[in-house]
Write a structure and sequence with these properties.
The protein is α/β, with parallel strands linked by helices. Helix content is about 35%, strand content about 20%. Strands 2-1-6-5-7 form a five-stranded parallel beta sheet. It has a two-stranded antiparallel ribbon with strand order 3-4. It has a two-stranded antiparallel sheet with strand order 8-9.
């Protein structure tokens, strides 16, 4: 059976930013092996005036510029199909591993990278863009966020990670942050690997790792810990 290939279309004013980090390591190897595809769409190509303007002053006044609805809509429509249409935005829903897995299970995504003060609200509404945030901070544009999103997705595609179990035990996959990791040498700068990890008792090791994951989550991310406890009930 031939597996479906994940197809990413990125709408941007800076196509030269891609593939960037997506062209190396796991994502780059998978791209070269055609396990996923990446196309960039230059939004400016869809401006119809002689100056190829993609932005204008905000209605009602204020600082900065706003990306024009008509130009952005034409860019989106040029690649629109059944794939989800995403907008990288600081006001979007926080990206979760659950949403990443949902996207990785699909055929691909159309990703809009905003610039300036953002997009005209009308194009967000009319094209039903799903706004996604990668954190509570501001970037210069959506391109970096799109790279983060695609990196998270691509590593979950079939055949990309050599050890699938590795992806299933990482932070957020179980609702907990990941347990600590150790490797040789046995003693480094006077610090030893915990004895339990060299005991050969895999049941005890699993129990220790679980306890460590719970304690780290409780201490560092009480929000995740509360959600985890609520999910267990």
């Amino acid at each position: 059976m031939t597996l479906k290939k994940f197809q990413a279309s990125v709408l941007t004013l800076y196509p030269e930013m891609f593939p960037g980090p997506l062209g190396v390591s796991l994502a780059g190897k998978a791209l070269n092996e055609a396990k996923w595809s990446l196309e960039t769409v230059q939004i400016r190509d869809f401006a119809e005036d002689k100056h190829r303007m993609v932005d204008d002053t905000p209605s009602g006044g204020g600082a900065g510029m706003v990306m024009k609805a008509d130009v952005v809509a034409r860019a989106i429509d040029s690649v629109a199909d059944h794939r989800p249409k995403l907008l990288m935005s600081p006001r979007g829903k926080p990206l979760t591993q659950k949403r990443v897995r949902e996207l990785a299970a699909g055929d691909g995504a159309i990703i809009m990278c905003g610039r300036f003060e953002g997009l005209d609200e009308r194009v967000i509404e009319s094209r039903e863009l799903e706004e996604i945030s990668i954190g509570d901070y501001i970037l210069s544009g959506g391109e970096t966020a799109a790279i983060v999103l695609l990196d998270a997705i691509v590593r979950l595609l079939p055949g990309v990670m050599g050890n699938q179990e590795s992806g299933e035990t990482e932070s957020f996959e179980t609702g907990l942050l990941e347990h600590p990791h150790y490797t040789r040498p046995q003693v480094w700068e006077g610090r030893s690997i915990p004895e339990i990890l060299t005991s050969g008792n895999h049941g005890a090791i699993d129990k220790w790792r679980r306890a460590q994951a719970e304690e780290i989550t409780k201490t560092r991310r009480p929000d995740l810990w509360e959600a985890f406890k609520g999910h267990k009930k």
